[in-house]
Every structure is written in structure tokens, then in C-alpha cells.
Specification:
homodimer; about 200 residues; alpha+beta; Nucleoside Triphosphate Pyrophosphohydrolase; 2 domains; nine-stranded mixed beta sheet; three-stranded antiparallel beta sheet; 12 strands
Chain lengths: ~200, ~200
């Protein structure tokens, strides 16, 4: 992570106490914190929701297609196209989890991995840490063998098709859009070509 | 929303029952569902977490800068640069909430609004519906008057600076990255210039 120049507005909130409200095995913990703001105000019930850390992978083949899957997403209540993703197993490193999830969900593998970013999924409540990866030169090694509840159809999409599917609402996952954007905007992934340099006053 | 061609893999899960586990006023409801998968399997405890619907705004000025704010985010535990965003008030329409949040948080207004997409924040657990908007020709009307707990510093960032800040980890919110990507990838927002058309086999 880079660092922003510190200002007086950056003061961390001080956690004065925390109480667990709900804990569901490895899936979720909800608690409330008593926090003290930099201006001295005390907030008694600031929520915190912890999900397991997870990985999301933008894997790009040599012929510049992104490996995605089409599946029913119960949260949305309909089918959508998503990047391969999943929660990390206990003791797993993010890269290890990313390689495992890509292989299990799609049958693809790569030996050219770049970590992109690792934000938390909820800016206020934490959510879970989401580790994004770019995998270049992805190639099919095996048939998918996901243990997930959802049935999946593997799709290889080029950039034009990805944009069309985002515009038409067929790619709606914030995780997937973030992964695609990080690969495209920051790393000019093959298949997700470089941006035109702006010539205006931007 | 566009529609994907239906396949046998699209079968909705049937909700056989639901039990509320936790409810915190308007902020959060956690429940478990008993669901039936298309292949007949019954899952007894599929989690559901509902946050309030919210709005995230990519507002671009006439001179092609995006209106963002720099603030401490307790979920991340450090300062970050984010798009203006907030939860919808009861009875509010998404556009109305977007206009209110942009004005309150940044003092900016616009009369050229485009809805971008409205995904849910969690593909499996629902989260909340996140309504993304593009506001063109944003102009400053007033001083910010946010009721938020966080102190904010308003920043006007051009495209080069946005990409630099994403790469260096100073823009880490998935909501903000998604909003920027939707504006850039799908709508070639002014200030977030058009993409180079790929000439390769993508």
C-alpha cells in the first residue's frame, strides 16, 4: 500500500470496546464497537461484520481472453458472469488460494501471477479482505472441479464482450468489475489493452 | 438489466424457509435460509446479510476532474480516497439520494445524471443494492455539509492521478473502483477518456 500524506483528518478512531453479537462458524462474525473519534465524540455502537478473506482472479489467456464463469448468484437472484473467486482456506496464502480457485473453478492455470490490490469489501464495516490477482498466459489444464453449490459455465471473453456485458448488466458483481478494472486500468493486462493517454487538460 | 440466454444452469434456488438471526435497526439484518438447489440438494443454512441500499457517485467536472474525498475509513483502519457515497434515506429514490449525497459530502451539484448499474454488494449474501451514477459537468454550489462521522478533504483528481492512486493503494474501496470503472469502461465519461479500440484478436 502507498501512503497518503498525513493530515489532521487522518486520526484513527480509537476502539474503546467491542462486543460480539453473532458468530457463524468461519462464515461471519458481527460485533459492535465503542469508538472514540478524533474530535472526542464517542460512538457506542459502530458495527463490524467480518467475512473470511477471499481471492478474485483476472486470468487472461495468450489470445487475450479473460476466463470467466456464468452462474446463478443467490445474492442477486439471477445468473451473472463473474471472475473466478472464492474464500481462502485456513492457513492458505492468498496466491495459493488464487491458484487453487482458478484451477478448481475453471480448470485453468498460469505461471505468471501479479497481485493487484487487497482492499476490504466494506469501507465502514470491514467485510473481508479481497485479494485481487492478475494471471497472465492462462492455459487450460483440466476440467473444472468446483465444490461450489453453483453450477458454472466457463466463458472466454474478449474486451469488447466484457464491456458489452457490463453495460447490459450481465456482469454485475462489484468484485468482478473491480478485478477487471484493476487489471485494465492499472496493469494493461494483455487482452485488456492499454488506455489512450489523455491529451486534454486532465 | 440485460438478460442472458437461459440455460439449465440458471435454475433459481428455491427458498424453503428463512430465520432471522440478528437485526440492528436500519443498518443490518442477518438471516439463514433453507434453500433447494436445482439438482434437488437441500442446504439448511445459507446466510443472508442485508445492508441498506446505497448510492455511489462518479461526478466529473467540466475540466475533466473527478470529485473525490479523502477520509479515514474505519473498516480499512486508514485514510483512503473515495467517491462520494452514502445510504439511501427511507422513501428516497436512488437519483434523489445520489444528488443529496453529492451535495452534502462535496458541495457539488450537476444537472446531467446517468444511472450506471445497480449491483448488490455481495454475490452470495446479498449485502445491499449499490446504485452507481455518473454526474457530468459537476460544479461547486456550496461548502460540504456532511453529517458523516468522518472528516473529509475534497479532492479533484484527473485520470492520471486516479490511476496512480489506485496503483499505489490510496484508492482501495471496491465501490469507488467499480464506480470509476463503470464511468470509464462503459460510458467514456469526460475526464475519463475513451478507450483505445483494440486492434488485436480480442
Amino acid at each position: 500500500m502507498g501512503t497518503l500524506k498525513k493530515t489532521s483528518k487522518d486520526g484513527k478512531w480509537e476502539v474503546l470496546g467491542s462486543k460480539e453479537l453473532l458468530h457463524i462458524d468461519s462464515r461471519m462474525t458481527v460485533s459492535v464497537q465503542k469508538v472514540k473519534l478524533p474530535d472526542g465524540r464517542i460512538i457506542d455502537d459502530y458495527c463490524r461484520v467480518i467475512f473470511p478473506d477471499c481471492v478474485i482472479i483476472a486470468a487472461v489467456t495468450k489470445d487475450k481472453k479473460v476466463v470467466m464463469s456464468r452462474q446463478y448468484l443467490h445474492g442477486f437472484g439471477h445468473a451473472s458472469i463473474v471472475l473466478p473467486a472464492g474464500t481462502m482456506n485456513k492457513g492458505e496464502e492468498p496466491l495459493q488460494a488464487a491458484k487453487r480457485e482458478l484451477l478448481e473453478e475453471t480448470g485453468y492455470d498460469s505461471d505468471d501471477w501479479t497481485p493487484l490490490a487487497s482492499p476490504y469489501s466494506h469501507t465502514n464495516y470491514v467485510g473481508g479482505k479481497v485479494n485481487f490477482f492478475l494471471a497472465r498466459n492462462a492455459r487450460k489444464l483440466a476440467e473444472p472441479d468446483s465444490k461450489d453449490l453453483e453450477e458454472m459455465e466457463i466463458l472466454l471473453l474478449n474486451e469488447t464482450s466484457i464491456i458489452k456485458n457490463i453495460k447490459s448488466g450481465n456482469i454485475v458483481s462489484m468484485g468482478s468489475i473491480t478485478g477487471l478494472a484493476l487489471a485494465k486500468l492499472c496493469f494493461n493486462a494483455p487482452g485488456i489493452r492499454g488506455m489512450r493517454r489523455s491529451t486534454g487538460p486532465v
